Amino acid sequence: MFDDVFGMTGQCVETFRNGVKDSFGASIVADVLDPICNEIGLLRSFNEEFQRQSMNIERVLQEARSFHFKERSK
C-alpha cells in the first residue's frame, strides 16, 4: 500500500520539481513536498516492520497452539 503511495508521490514531486522556476516553488519542494515524501518513506518502513513482526507473532502463536494440542493428546 505505502509502496504505491510512495511511488506516486515521488513522481508528482519530481514533475513539480522539474517545473520549478523560482524560489517560491523551490521552497514548496523543500518545505512541503520533500517532508511529505520523507514521512511516507517512514510510514512505509514502519509498515514493513509491522508486517514482519505480525508474521513472527503469528508463527510463534501457531507453534504454541501446536505444542498445546500435542500436550493435550498425551
Question: Can you describe what's shown?
Answer:
There is one protein chain. The chain is an all-alpha fold and 74 residues long. It has one domain (2-73). It contains 2 helices and no strands. Helix 1 (2-19) packs antiparallel against helix 2 (23-73). 0% of the residues are buried.
Task: Give a short overview.
This protein is mostly helical.
Helix and strand run: HH
Intertermini distance: 45 Å
Please state the overall shape, judged from the principal axes of the Cα atoms.
rod-shaped
Q: What is the average per-residue confidence, as pLDDT, rounded to a whole number? A: 91
Count of helical stretches: 2
| Beta-strand proportion | under 5%
> How many distinct beta strands?
0
Helix-and-strand structural type? mainly alpha
Low-pLDDT segments? none
Based on CA atoms alone, the radius of gyration comes out at 22 Å
Helical coverage, percent range: over 70%
Major sheet: none
Task: Count the domains.
Answer: 1
Task: Please specify the SSE layout and strand pairing.
Blueprint: H1 2-19, H2 23-73
Helix pairs in contact: 1-2
Which features would summarize this protein structure in a list?
single chain, 74 residues, mainly alpha, 2 helices
